[in-house]
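Project standup — Tuesday

K.O.: blocked on the structure for the chain from last sprint. Re-posting the sequence here as requested.
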Amino acid sequence: MSNPSNTPTAVSCLEQGGVILYPTEAVFGLGCDPDNQQAVEQLLVIKQRPVEKGLILIADNYGQLLKYVDDAKLPMDKRADIFSSWPAPITWVMPAAKSTPKWLTGQFDTIAVRVSNHPTVKRLCQEFGKPLVSTSANLTGQETVTSIAQAQLQFAEQVGFYVDEPLGGNTQPSTIKDAMTGKVFRG
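H.V.: unblocked you, prediction finished:
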């Protein structure tokens, strides 16, 4: 069962530039405000992830992602595949809008985005009013944490708020596909 009382505190943390830990479809994720460079840099330090790799944005609906995606570059024949696959644990790598900051895209001119059906993610994005940065809750190259207690041991005060709600029940992280070619980066 979700606990809506968690959300205002998690959203407050996001609004203040903090990093939160929250459940996704398969794993716990670290997230922050994608428009706050300092928050994204803090998340990258916590995770020990280089900015060049880029990050995923997770949203309640595609409309929340339009600011970051160059929607006009999506071919009509690819749109059916993309939009019929959501909401689900499928991340699409799309052309990034020119205004999308490099702290999100890294070395790429694309942005990885997902519309989630996880109730906690949906609620957080609705109440925050935009997508969240979403990256697995682990140090780069290490196993993802599997519980709030394990996360608190690993990240301690580096994470501003821990959303203690259930994972979505999937056993694998999201599939990542190229929106232009259909190529699978992670299956």
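K.O.: great, moving the ticket to review. The helical segments are 6-15, 37-47, 76-84, 102-105, 119-128, 148-155. Strands lie at 20-23, 28-31, 56-59, 90-95, 110-115, 132-136, 161-162, 175-178, 184-186.
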